[in-house]
Automatic annotation (TrEMBL):
Stored InterPro entries: Thymidate_synth/dCMP_Mease, Thymidate_synth/dCMP_Mease_dom, Thymidate_synth/dCMP_Mease_sf, Thymidylate_synthase
UniProt record similarity statement: Belongs to the thymidylate synthase family. Bacterial-type ThyA subfamily.
The protein's role, per its UniProt record: Catalyzes the reductive methylation of 2'-deoxyuridine-5'-monophosphate (dUMP) to 2'-deoxythymidine-5'-monophosphate (dTMP) while utilizing 5,10-methylenetetrahydrofolate (mTHF) as the methyl donor and reductant in the reaction, yielding dihydrofolate (DHF) as a by-product. This enzymatic reaction provides an intracellular de novo source of dTMP, an essential precursor for DNA biosynthesis.
Record GO biological process: methylation
Main location: cytoplasm
Keywords: Cytoplasm, Methyltransferase, Nucleotide biosynthesis, Transferase
UniProt keyword Methyltransferase, yes or no: yes
Residue sites binding dUMP per the record: 27, 185-188, 196, 226-228
Binding positions for (6R)-5,10-methylene-5,6,7,8-tetrahydrofolate per the UniProt entry: 188, 287
Pathway: Pyrimidine metabolism; dTTP biosynthesis
Record domain Thymidylate synthase/dCMP hydroxymethylase: where: 7-288
Organism: Glaciecola petra
UniProt-recorded name of the protein: Thymidylate synthase
Length: 288
């Protein structure tokens, strides 16, 4: 059985504290206590929604962010419109991006995440929709062992504000059950991870729902897991002193039946979490 996701989270935080090494980070100027390699697992079949309970997490914003990725949003203003402010700083305060001639003005994020997932540029100038291809195959029960959506396009890194952190999602079918393996190169454990855990869960649940498959498990593979130096005291002396609660569950509007629904009318209010008991919020500092 999968261990409660909040417990997996606190175990990872403790491992970083016990085994992590200090690494200077040039981009942000803030050092990070860093661990290489972590594996998390979420049981979508059992509907154990992976929300950290040792602090209040903002899952509505996390779900909105995922919807923005699936819709190929490229502007922080689009994310704000659907209830997510997480891209404001990287679009408008990141020094390297502000100085980049590719930036098209206020709120532009450039060719990141969903732009690559939905509009991968081909040499002939046309675009390829990775997500649509995967949805079409899964709907027909096909797993060609390459049901992959990747946002990672090294040839276009200079056209976006940040390289994607959760960069690749691989879908797999066994019998009538859909699995998801999600790869993450760089993980801000106090902040970003509390968004990424529920996002992986929702991505599998939604894809299963629109393809007619049963949801199985998510395998979340993290390479560089870190805590920024200015977050460490709150993590060690506040959050990790708390006892986790049981996992909540998630219900998704059953009227969502297609990728087009996700592109057109779905909003964060189509997702309802029940039984979320959490300790009070912690305002962790954010490194731009
Ligand atoms: N340093 C850093 N950490 C990240 O986690 C991160 C980035 N940069 N840049 C790109 C995205 C943006 N993400 C973010 C950005 C902000 C929050 C954040 O401020 N979360 C608060 C409040 C959220 C709210 O009120 O909606 C939190 O307490 O979780 C979370 C994830 C994740 N990513
Ligand atoms: O979904 C996300 C997006 C970003 N992060 C974190 C991981 C790092 O702390 C920064 C990105 O910095 P890089 O220098 O590009 O690695 O953002 C996250 O945890 N989750």
């Amino acid at each position: 059985m999968t261990r409660s996701s909040s417990h997996q989270y606190e175990t990872l935080c403790q491992r970083i504290i016990d085994q992590g090494q200090w690494v200077e980070n040039e981009r942000t100027g803030i050092r990070c206590l860093t661990l290489i390699n972590a594996d998390l697992e979420y049981d979508v079949a059992a509907n154990e929604f992976p929300l950290v309970t040792t602090r209040k997490c903002f899952y509505k914003a996390a779900i909105a962010e995922l919807l923005g990725y699936l819709r190929a949003y490229d502007s922080a203003a689009q994310f704000r419109e659907i209830g997510c402010k997480t891209w404001d700083a990287n679009a408008n305060e990141n020094k390297a991006w502000l100085a980049n001639p590719a930036r098209k003005g206020l709120d532009d994020m450039g060719r990141v995440y969903g732009v690559q997932g939905r509009n991968w540029l081909k040499p002939d100038g046309s675009t390829f929709d990775q997500l649509q291809k995967v949805v079409n195959n899964l709907k027909n029960g096909i797993d060609d062992r390459g049901e992959i959506v990747t946002f990672y396009n090294p040839g276009e890194f200079d056209l976006g504000c940040l390289r994607p952190c959760m960069h690749t999602h691989t879908f797999s079918i066994l019998a009538d059950t859909l699995y998801l393996t999600s790869y993450m190169r760089s993980c801000d454990v106090p902040l970003g991870l509390t968004f990424n855990m529920p996002q992986c869960f929702v991505l599998l649940a939604l894809m299963a729902q629109i393809t007619g498959l049963k949801p199985g498990k998510v395998y979340h593979k993290i390479v560089n897991a870190h805590i920024y130096e200015n977050q460490l005291d709150l993590m060690q002396n506040v959050q990790l002193k708390r006892t986790p609660y049981a996992a909540p569950s998630l219900s998704i509007n059953p009227k969502i039946k297609s990728l087009e629904d996700i592109e057109t009318w779905v909003s964060k209010s189509d997702f309802e979490v029940t039984g979320y008991q959490a300790h009070e919020a912690i305002a962790y500092p954010f490194a731009v």
